Amino acid sequence: MGGQKIVLGVTGSVAVYKSCELLRGLIKNGASCTVIMTEAAQRFVTPLTFQALGADQVITSDCNQAGTAIPHIDATRDATLLLIAPATANILAKAAQGIADDVLSAAILAARCPVAFAPAMNTYMWHNNATQRNIAQLIQDGAIFFGPANGEQACGDVGSGRMLEPSEILEMMQGALTPRLLDRCRVLITAGPTYEPIDPVRGITNLSSGKQGFAIAKAAVLAGAEVTLIAGPTTLKTPAGVRRIDVVTALDMYNAVMAEVSQHEVFISVAAVADWRVDAPSTHKIKKEFTGAPTLSFVENPDILASVAALENAPYCVGFAAETDNLIDNARAKVFRKNVPLIVANLVKDAMNQDTNAVVFVERDAATPLTRASKDAVAQALIAKIAQEVN
Ligand code: PMT
User: How large is the average pLDDT for residues 264-287?
Assistant: First the structure.
């Protein structure tokens, strides 16, 4: 959210405490924030709380801001989004009717950016026909809704109406603010390690965590793609909106990819796939007292990326290369050997099981290094690069 200017409207609900955490999350993600509070909101927390948490300014009325000519007009002048969180039934009703009788409702009416609501109210208020009519009107007028969630409420009732958690709202905001560079494009991604059994308790794997591949899956969904993620053994949570297929061995991964690939326009091969598997894994635990150190023989696994790139109707293929030396030369050799237009090259020490990555986009006749960044940022840069190539 670097560079985004968010205006956070806060209304009077017990869920106001979540807005404090939301503000912190927005600032941590690089956004700058102006807060507008209603009088009712100020009975739950003071403006000073939001000020201390890093808001650029906290507007509490239309006439108390030194240096701001007309707060309800100026607040959203360069804003990316006006988000009302928590949004009570009252503010939804006012916004649906165009009532502007305080600084926040006036700012909504004057907004020159998209407006989003994260509702928070008692479940009977949420289900009331009047509230539902107001929501339908707001959606028709282009408003975005984040939630509400289901569950136990502060008053003891159970049902829809709880404000979403700040982390969920942040994720949805990212989705709403990300340009849909791969709108409805079907993207197939492999991620994580593979595991090749030696016997039922032992096997051969590698240090890939799956983080880079999962970050790419998340970035692709945010860019509007329909994503299938084929994941080797990892404990990572599936990113929202991603269809996930779990596999264990390289052969499993090969079979899953080959079954899926014809349904996809882009293939991104991030997985660290074992090049060899044990020829004949034992079906029983190998006992050292009976056999001593076993001698293992290996057979080569199929090269998934090269097999996909060789298909008659191959999707746009992107490979990765994790190297310890001669990064660009080794990556470029893979561009030719696997016959793919783009290899994302990274050093093992920079990439494997790390939270950040430093990559080079290696093509037949170009090598473009990116500065070290979070795996999310690398993923976004890769999605932008792929969008340039396929659109
Ligand atoms: O999972 P993380 O901890 O986030 O780490 C990310 C990563 C380091 C695993 C990732 O950024 C990366 O570099 N992935 C490729 C790892 C690799 O070792 O690639 P390779 O040089 O063995 O293979 C080159 C390409 O061919 C890769 O796209 C690979 O997916 C593919 N391949 C390799 C062998 C094989 N049998 N089938 C394949 O499809």
Answer: 96
Tokens found for residue 81: 């989004």
322 lines ligand 1 (CB under 6 A): yes
CB 273 less than 6 A from any atom of ligand 1: yes
Confirm or reject: Cβ of 343 under 6 Å from ligand 1: no
Output the CA 364–ligand 1 centroid distance in Å.
19
Ligand 1 centroid to Cα of residue 285, in Å, is: 30
Write the secondary structure of the chain as one string of H (helix), E (strand) and C (coil).
CCCCEEEEEECCCCCHHHHHHHHHHHHHCCCEEEEEECHHHHCCCCHHHHHHCCCCEEECCCCCCCCCCCHHHHCCCCCCEEEEEEECHHHHHHHHHCCCCCHHHHHHHHCCCCEEEEECCCHHHHHCHHHHHHHHHHHHCCCEECCCEEEECCCCCEEEEECCCHHHHHHHHHHHHCCCCCCCCEEEEEECECCEECCCCCEECCCCCCHHHHHHHHHHHHCCCEEEEEECCCCCCCCCCCEEEECCCHHHHHHHHHHHHHHCCEEEECCECCCEEECCCCCCCCCHHHHCCCCCCEEECCCHHHHHHCCCCCCEEEEEEEECCCHHHHHHHHHHHCCCCEEEEEEHHHHCCCCEECEEEEECCEEEECCCEEHHHHHHHHHHHHHHHHC
Task: Evaluate the CA torsion angle 145, 61, 53, 15 in order and state its sign.
Answer: negative
pLDDT reading at 137 higher than 70: yes
Contacts with 326 (C-beta within 8 Å, 6 or more apart), sequence order = none
What mean pLDDT comes out for the span 201-214? 98
pLDDT tens readout for residues 353-377: 999 999 999 999 999 999 999 999 9
C-beta of residue 5 within 8 angstroms of C-beta of residue 79: yes
- Provide the pLDDT for residue 178: 85
- Ligand 1, residue 319: give the atom nearest the CA: 28
